[in-house]
Amino acid sequence: MSIKTFGLAAALVSGQLAAAPSVYPTGVTLYDPAKAWNGYVIFSSPDKQTRLIDMNGNEVKRWDSAGFPAALIDPKLNGGKRGHLFVQLEEVAAPGRLASAGNGLRNKVVGELDWNGAVVWQWGAQAPGGAAHQHHDQRRLANGNTLVLANRLHAVPGFAVPEVIDDVIYEVDPKGKVAWSWTASEHLEEFGFDAEQLKLVRASKNPDVFHINNLSVVGPNRWYIDGDKRFHPDNLLIDSREGNFIAIVDRQSGKVAWRLGPNLPKLNGYAPIKVPRPVDQFSGQHDAHIIPEGLPGAGNLLVFDNQGEAGYPRVPLSLLGGSRILEIDPIKGEIVWQYSAVDSGQPGWAFYSAFISSARRLPNGNTLIDEGKFGRVFQVTPAGKIVWEYVSPYFGKAPMGDTRSNWLYRALPVPYDWVPEGTPRAEQAVTPPALEQFRVTTHP
Question: Are β-strands 236-240 and 164-172 bridged in parallel, bridged antiparallel, or unpaired?
Fold first, then answer.
């Protein structure tokens, strides 16, 4: 989420200047229990709270801390403890002029909360420089350590800006000691930029040069079982929003073992949508990850293709298109499934978030999508039918300026067995009215 993408100029360049209605429903607007995957959803909202909701939008649990984003801790990695999550706990008192909603320079302490909100682990004072500076991701590992995606503000030789907001991955043990680290700027020439692009990267006036917005563990997968060592389960997958590339980092060497982008064929927004086909140009993407074992599409890459302004140089964007969800065979480099608004019978621009957002595969084959700019979370079937839809009613400060918004950085599906036994839930069908007849009534 680059702060530059919030600007009017970016919207005008992309042709995606969108306006939400001034009045619209919030909460669950559509729900088909027979076709939806039924579980909870968790998200942090701009009112600095983290909430767990059920399928009818009821607030089941609230934690008085927000995450960037909130992240679930799998009970299998946590001694069977249910309902634990990562959030940000404390901000830096004087973060400096480069701190923004899109980076981690404001963050001082991250931590693990239990179901009741008690802090059971935290990290910040022991971090390099005395602050965690976490952004976009935290992950608990099977060995009990924690991966933290963070920022490091420092001078990088050859770059035009005096200080780069570099991206760093820390592996932190339970006592707070850094057991392993990786720094993005040290691998610049492994990211797939050609000589002219490298000049643009180094000359960039934006200190958040890479803006890595995702960190995930590759996890067990069929490619590694078949002998492809690039997909070792312990390797890490990242994506660069500004650089338009997705990469796997080898945990042993620290080098980039696999990469997709940044230079891909131009997206033809007017051509018929056919799959499989070679991957075309994603731009400003978020939430790239390998679909875990046990889920439909396991081993493929799933990514929210924002189609937001990004790249060195900026890639051309479609005037009439919108965002897409792409499922990619990482070996063949082919799109094997995708979702856009067209799949739900709407024009392409009807689904669009230039920044933030996420997509996760569900056990029944549906996909949970967070259209973050508008605080809209919905489930689609493989055929693109919307079977659950929710618009967040929780507002707070927008990422820039003094305006209010219900934006949601990421929304995650939560299985019923993640919460303590006896946690309430509701699964009552919601049938929306016909839009042509949906009115706000007047009263005499």
Answer: unpaired
331 found inside a domain: yes
Q: Across-strand partners of 269?
A: none
The single residue listed with the structure tokens 């490619």 is: 223
Residue 19's pLDDT is what? 59
The stretch 257-266 carries a mean pLDDT of 97
Q: Are strands 324-329 and 376-380 parallel, antiparallel or unpaired?
A: unpaired
Instruction: Indicate the number of domains in the chain.
Output: 1
Residue 366 is encoded by which pair of tokens? 């549906």
Q: Which helix (H) or strand (E) holds 12?
A: helix 8-14
User: Rounded to whole angstroms, how far apart are CA atoms 386 and 330?
Assistant: 27
The predicted structure's pLDDT at residue 443:
76
The residues pairing with 82 across neighbouring beta strands, listed in sequence order, are none
Q: Which own/partner pairs from 371-375 qualify as long-range (CB within 8 Å, at least 24 positions apart)?
A: 371/323, 372/407, 372/408, 372/409, 372/410, 373/18, 373/407, 374/20, 374/406, 374/407, 375/45, 375/405, 375/406, 375/407, 375/408
Chain centroid, CA 214 distance in Å: 6
Q: 303 φ, ψ to 5°?
A: -150, 145
Q: How confident is the model at residue 5 (pLDDT cuts 50, 70, 90)?
A: very low
Question: How do beta strands 386-391 and 376-380 pair?
Answer: antiparallel
How many residues comprise the chain? 444
End-to-end CA distance of the chain: 46
Domain that holds residue 99: 22-421
> CB–CB of 141/112 below 8 Å?
no
- Give domain status of residue 17, yes or no: no
| Sequence-separated (6 or more) residues with CB below 8 Å from residue 82 | 75, 115, 417, 418, 419, 420
Contact of 355 with 368, CB cutoff 8 Å: no
Q: What's the CATH code of the domain at 351?
A: 2.120.10.30
Enter the DSSP assignment of 343.
Answer: G
The mean predicted confidence, pLDDT, of the chain is 94
What integer pLDDT is reported at residue 272 of this predicted model?
67
pLDDT in tens, 69-125: 999 999 999 999 999 999 999 999 999 999 999 999 999 999 999 999 999 999 999
Rounded Cα distance, 331 and 299, in Å: 10
* Type of residue at 239: D
